[in-house]
Amino acid sequence: MNKKPHIFHRASILAFSLFLSLGLGVSVAGALNIENVTSKKGLHGWLVEDNTVPVVSIQFSIGGGTTQDPEGKEGLANLMTGLFDEGAGDLDSQAFQGRLDDLGAEMAFSVNRDRMRGNMKMLADKRNEAINLLALAVQKPRFDNEAIERIREQLVAELKASEKDPKTIAQNRLLTLIYGKHPYSKKGEGTPETLGTISRDDLLKAHHAMFARDNIHIGIVGPVKAEEAATIIDKIFGALPEKADLQKIEEAKLNLGGMANVNYDLPQTSLMLVYPGVKRNDPQFFAAYLMNYILGGPGLTSRLFSEVREKRGLAYTVGSSLMLYEHSAALAVSTGTRSSEAQKTLATIRNEVKKMADDGVSEQELEDAKSYVIGSYAVQNMGSSSDIAATLVGLQDENLPIDYIEKRQALINAVTREQIKAIAEKLLRPEPALLVIGPSKG
């Protein structure tokens, strides 16, 4: 089976397309009934009991992402995510994947800088067998040498194929520019050289350090009652060590005001500007979120889209986004433009950023932004049982309360123009870090 593990997405997708088109009978706008379940071994998980679809979705996250990779072994966590369905317990790779296939179950693992994620979607009437497989993968991954070499070769091939990809170059150079020597600047996917140093013992050691009962957030959605959910949680995670053994990651200080040029012989120039941000638990978060949406958020109505692309035709793409990590926050503006228009595009972006800091937003812009941000939440986060389970885990990852979804609309509606003006001044006044990728002349 030819698999392609990636740092942000890696899945072994099997026969489950039947359920992608099924609706989920959970009322999001009303009250999503989330139960906080405690297992006999003291593990906690959030449960949404839903009986409209005969599917159980389990999502979980493990603290400690690619920042935990040892020096010289970057790519360790990423390699690990490619191996969980390559054999566990007494089942080798072929036997394990055959069982998954027979059950019509889907299992996937991925990793980012802060956390590793796993999920399984299964038919409700086959959940016991599927959960047994997930428990094996979580507790007793084999990390067989044959599988390690095969997945390593795939990752190395992908890395070599992406060496000249402008997006890959931009991401790596940007992280180095703004984070310096902080672990966030690591190449989480690794390099051919660092991947080559990773052994089975390294994988076992990293697994033991991260996979522990005090280091897990769990979400379950489906025709499951609280008592059964508690049993499922212990079945999958109860045999893990009590405490994780992670290296401490310090808060990251953004290196702003600097500039980096990457010479790349293409007729297009990519520009990235990085400003300070606010973390998810900051009281000013929703003011920053709405401000960012108005400045350069998704869709065709943002100021940057209107001024840079629609009115002037300067850019192919333009937008802004909040970069949220556990130990850092930033606001990034990015665009791709003809190299001959790079200076004009940069000046237009800077002017729009300055206008936001100077003048804030209009009442109509704020009302439109609130309407979109409130209305799009269900579509983006509640479209399926897997989406809801992922949302339950994400809320826990962000240390948000269990009633957050109920309170979210009121929190957004409470944001004022004055609050947006204040956060815009705070975030957009400093000189940003600037990354330019394109031809040396143009």
TrEMBL record:
Record's keyword annotation contains Hydrolase: yes
One BP term from GO: proteolysis
InterPro entries given in the database record: Metalloenz_LuxS/M16, MPP/UQCRC_Complex, Pept_M16_N, Peptidase_M16_C
EC identifiers of the protein: 3.4.24.-
UniProt entry keywords in alphabetical sequence: Hydrolase, Protease
Peptidase M16 C-terminal domain boundaries: 197-371
Keyword Protease among record annotations: yes
A GO MF term: metal ion binding
Coiled coil: none
Limits of the Peptidase M16 N-terminal domain: 49-186
SUPFAM superfamilies, per database record: LuxS/MPP-like metallohydrolase
Top-level EC class as recorded in UniProt: hydrolase
PANTHER family: METALLOPROTEASE, PROCESSING PROTEASE
Protein name in UniProt: Zinc protease
